[in-house]
Specification:
single chain; 304 residues; alpha/beta; eight-stranded parallel barrel; two-stranded parallel sheet; 19% strand
């Protein structure tokens, strides 16, 4: 059973590679399982207890191949005991590959997008959109992924880009497919979602059920200010090359480790403590999770 929460402890997550950024934008983005694992080790050494992982092909293109996720897990586990958080995000309705790698690899945590939204990036210099799409996350899609996570004993990390995503969890709790205690990530500064304001985080934390864990994900250069805000409000934090390439002084980071070093220093500078892997396990209640039989639309059961 999880222990009482020390409010001074802060879990640092590192988002090591993402899905959209490439080496033309940042030459230090890892692509291969070995490169991703090396970056996870650098992040762990700097203070990260959790690593958030998207899989890529060797050429950097995104993949949901369960074998690639399995290789990433193998390579990371060789190097350090950091907690694994696998992305499940896709614009497609078909999440069969995601359900497969959740069941087969059993990461400690899996990210779960909690609502549909406009997902876009706008260039003020060019006066046009760099990309413009809808990111669909229907309840039926969310439930399929939740059932796969429940069957495998994997903790869902509820990624909320807007207040409606946070409020909208209540039917899932009522159905019993989502169970407390909950872990939220509040993403700010994505066009179509909430702005990077302290008030955004305050509202999100008022909407979420009491006793939930939460972290901030600040996209681009506002990330450091939002990390500072989350630290003051008692939340956990995330940094990494998926979210922001740059150190506070404006220099491009040469590794995820450099970004996590800054985040860890910020944690300590406000009088809080960087959570170890074991402390993060306890805070998130990971040891309380037990694999459950798959029901409804979940097709893959957890391996023995």
């Amino acid at each position: 059973m999880s222990t009482a929460r020390d409010p001074d402890l802060c879990i640092i997550t590192c988002a090591v590679t993402g899905v959209l950024a490439n080496r033309k934008q940042c030459p230090y983005i890892p692509y291969t399982p070995v490169e991703i694992a090396e970056e996870c080790k650098r992040a762990y050494d700097a203070g990260a207890a959790v690593v958030h992982i998207h899989a890529r092909n060797d050429d950097g293109s995104p993949t949901f191949d369960p074998q690639v996720f399995a290789r990433i897990k193998e390579e990371v586990t060789k190097r350090c005991p950091v907690l694994l958080n696998f992305s499940t995000g896709t614009i497609l309705d078909d999440v069969s590959q995601q359900c497969t790698y959740i069941a087969e690899s059993r990461p400690h945590i899996a990210a779960l997008n909690m609502g549909t939204m406009n997902y876009a990036k706008y260039s003020e210099n060019r006066k046009q959109f760099v990309f413009d799409m809808v990111f669909p996350n229907t309840y039926s899609k969310i439930i399929k992924l939740l059932e796969a996570m429940n069957a495998a004993g994997v903790k869902p990390e509820l990624e909320c880009f807007d207040t409606g995503h946070t409020h909208g969890i209540w039917p899932l709790l009522d159905m019993g497919v989502l169970k407390k205690p909950l872990q939220f990530s509040f993403i700010v500064n994505v066009l179509g979602g909430i702005p990077p304001l302290v008030e955004s985080l305050q509202l999100q934390t008022k909407i979420m059920p009491p006793g939930s864990e939460w972290e901030v994900i600040g996209i681009s250069k506002c990330g450091w200010r939002m990390i500072a805000a989350a630290l003051a409000l008692g939340g956990n934090v995330r940094a990494g090359l998926e979210d922001n390439f740059y150190l506070p002084n404006g220099e491009m980071a040469r590794s995820n480790g450099e970004l996590i070093e800054v985040a860890a220093r910020m944690v300590r500078d406000v009088g809080r403590k960087v959570a170890t892997v074991e402390q993060a396990r306890q805070i998130l209640g990971l040891d309380d999770l037990r694999p459950q039989p798959a029901t409804g639309s979940a097709q893959a059961s957890a391996p023995s």
